[in-house]
Amino acid sequence: MKLFILVALFGLCLAQHNPHIQHGRTSIVHLFEWRWADITAECERFLGPNGFGGVQISPPNEHIVLNSPWRPWWQRYQPVGYNLCSRSGNENELRDMITRCNNVGVNIYVDAVINHMCGAGAGEGTHSSCGSWFSAGRKDFPSVPFTQSDFNDHKCRTGSGEIENYGDANQVRDCRLVSLLDLALEKDYVRDKVADFMNKLIDMGVAGFRVDACKHMWPGDLSAVYGRLHNLNTEWFSGGSRPFIFQEVIDLGGESITSTEYFHLGRVTEFKYGAKLGTIFRKWNGEKLSYTKNWGEGWGFMPNDNALVFVDNHDNQRGHGAGGAAIATFWDSRLHKMAVGFMLAHPYGVTRVMSSFRWNRHIVNGKDQNDWEGPPSHGDGSTKSVPINADQTCGDGWVCEHRWRQIKNMVIFRNVVNGQPHSNWWDNQSNQVAFGRGNRGFIVFNNDDWDLDVTLNTGMPGGTYCDVISGQKEGSGCSGKQIHVGGDGRAHFKISNRDEDPFVAIHADSKL
Ligand code: QV4
Ligand code: CA
């Protein structure tokens, strides 16, 4: 009996680690600040057809609206309530998006901001995305409703009421994160309200949640909230499916709170991944690509089954959160493509691709003066839709890294090699490396300052393959380099360090 309970509990926990991605797909894309109507269109015209498994959406619930600074992106991390109208659109548009994305096999994961409401200094009035009245000063949010006693202030032991010392777990969980009004998740009432909000989304058809600021919530409180969640909607998911949970915990070491505390609840964001990978591709601190032979757990990252990995995210691409200048973003597009290519080729973790908007980056003494700038918008502050150019790129300031040929093709590569082991490793003891995924795919990088010219065992069946980085298969032809794999699995690779993208990737479906 005891064993049965243990097994059942184990099963229940692991369930929230499963992203329930459909049709053998493997990757999630964060369409940061996109409108619901644009995501709907993107699911149908691009994500579904190109093998993307899911979208992380910006917070869908009601948030403050700020005029100074003018409509910053981070206003959406200051909830006013759980009505489903936001800068991205209203509830009908949200529902339509979830339905239509699900119908083309693309899951929706919601960014859930449940640690706090808005900042203590956010004022009083109806400057909110659905127009609900609230008072930050009186901690009054009638649309939920939350009142004074639903917040943690009595529990926080710092003089300022703010988190002052990340070495003290009590402060980190019970005090205010950058003045954000901290919810008392120990109360059943608060847990119920938060779970109602998440359940409404689950019933609408979402596949799970990126849970914001988990470091600032007690694992026991989160467990109580997750335990209240419904199973996924059986219109799209098999009966008994638990929502996928991936928790934002920034753990680079050296603090009182570790990611380990959250492993049993769901997956956790592995922030070491992007920080290290950026350092490696930049060749900082004596790092070399050849050191990635044991990439993953061998580098002290969390266990594979717990990890949600990414090269950059909406915070650290602009200096918020963690990782600093090492992070490889679209601003360094050549590095970014290589790093994302490496991540998508490597078996470790559930992968998330970033899709950004451009802003007027202006770094003074290491700090971006415009790190607050919101998405491309009209004069009235409403978000612009995403126009698609003739060459399939996006216009109007939307970067759309996920549409870049190299990245899109590596998302497909990951699907094709899914389940295959990391194999046939080669390196030159510097920054040229190659590895395969069983007999389904092979990738070669040259991040040295000289040419790569080598014959390698790919593990692939003989034939001619189209490199999906310099081009792709177009009908029966190939718009990029062609790689000839002999009957013995060996192939010759030549990559100049001056190539536009100094890496080559082939897979079973790119065979000509
Ligand atoms: C400021 C001061 C405070 C002061 C306050 C006075 O910084 O010290 O007390 O004014 O009113 C914004 C402003 C910030 C301001 C705050 C409250 O940037 O200057 O406080 O609002 O008005 C995003 C942004 C934050 C933003 C927040 C809320 O990154 O800058 O704060 O949204 O709008 C830690 C956490 C981790 C977190 C990461 C950024 O452990 O959980 O920092 N990451 C997540 C999200 C992130 C989001 C939050 C958490 C909060 O990914 O995008 O913060 O929901 O590492
Ligand atoms: Ca808290």
Automatic annotation (TrEMBL):
Source taxon at top rank: Eukaryota
GO biological process: carbohydrate metabolic process
GO molecular function, one term: metal ion binding
Phylogenetic lineage: Eukaryota, Metazoa, Chordata, Craniata, Vertebrata
Enzyme Commission no: 3.2.1.1
Family recorded in the similarity comment: Belongs to the glycosyl hydrolase 13 family.
Domain Alpha-amylase C-terminal positions: 423-511
UniProtKB keywords: Calcium, Carbohydrate metabolism, Chloride, Disulfide bond, Glycosidase, Hydrolase, Metal-binding, Signal
Broad class of enzyme this protein falls into: hydrolase
Disordered: annotated segments: 368-387
Limits of the Glycosyl hydrolase family 13 catalytic domain: 26-414
Protein name from the UniProt record: Alpha-amylase
Species of the source: Cyclopterus lumpus
Cofactor: chloride; Ca(2+)
Leader sequence segment: 1-15
Catalysis: reaction(s): Endohydrolysis of (1->4)-alpha-D-glucosidic linkages in polysaccharides containing three or more (1->4)-alpha-linked D-glucose units
